[in-house]
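The record is given unchanged here:
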Amino acid sequence: MIDAVTQSLKESRTPRRIHRVAATSEVHHTSVAWRKLHDVSCVAENYRIREFTGCFCPNCPLAISYPLLMTIPHTQPATWPTDLPPARFAAHIQQAMPTACKVALLGLPDDLGVRLNNGRPGAAEGPRAFREALTRYGVAQPASGPLPRVFDAGDVVPASGTDAVALNETHNRVTEATRAILKLGLFPIAIGGGHDLTFAFARGVLEHLRSHVMPARTTPTAPHVLYFDAHLDVRDTAGSGMPFRRIAETCGVRSFAVVGAKPGVNSAEHAAYFASIGGRVVTQQSHALPAGTTDVLVSLDLDALDAGHAPGVSAMNPAGLSSLAVEQWIAWCATNPLVRCFDIMELSPPHDDNNRTARVAAHMFYTFLQGLATRPGFAHTGGVA
């Protein structure tokens, strides 16, 4: 594949594809594949750098104007070990190009919303801890059958600042990155990060659906949000406790179901508001999706789990769901073709115990991939290399 791309870059005749060999010996490149590409990459005459799509390679000053090398806006490359054993699933996550990939992993390393909500900071480190846990969990060739190939789209770079303005800018970046992933035809899975980021992630999915999918439908569109959380998260103030109010009021969604919500940590006012936007607390899968639903967005706040299973979260749950119960729900969601995205939020490594919560997050991600693999066209059958 790399040789084909290299040849295409050499032979390209489109004005925006005029390439000159660029000297890159002073730049550290992390893979042989990227060195090959950079040997023929360049900057077109008189082009402003901001007009280029960018490059996946860390610390690279060059930009490659080529569709297959499209970067995800506002992101920086994630860090993975280079010596993972081939038997591990994480060893086969793609970082340079989404070749043959069906799923994109997007890190959301920001916890400003948690801090604005007076919660325990630390979720900004969630994506890093999740990836580290994934390097030690999950085989490349499970007994359940082939998994979807995953492209790591990197981490969204949060905006600088400590107020609601900065939070809003970070949300805009997450939305743009999500839309770019969907434009590549990939199923988006986000790892955070404060739960407010679910709003920005979901907004990107809904905007893509409304511009690329919904216009072709002949029946009414009815998006639905299914989430796992001890809290309703419908506050009217900026912070991690407001994502589903924002999804309702900004994105026009009027159908919600939450699993694991606790009456003692949700006010009567918030419960009434939740009901007013079509929200229901559910305990059974048969009640989770209303009739007529066309699109489902799924979000897992790790504080839905009991603190004995997931201590490393922004707000520990003394009587939450078991890992087994959540696993069963996640597997069920993944197999449903109406589900358009998935996120795992509020992983807070500074409060974790021996990386237990990060391992739970990795397991839920892996479980979701196993479910996705049952959908037509998702399982990668071309081998693990």
In short: The chain is about 30% helix and 10% strand. The two ends are 13 Å apart (CA to CA). Confidence is low (pLDDT under 50) at residues 1-69.
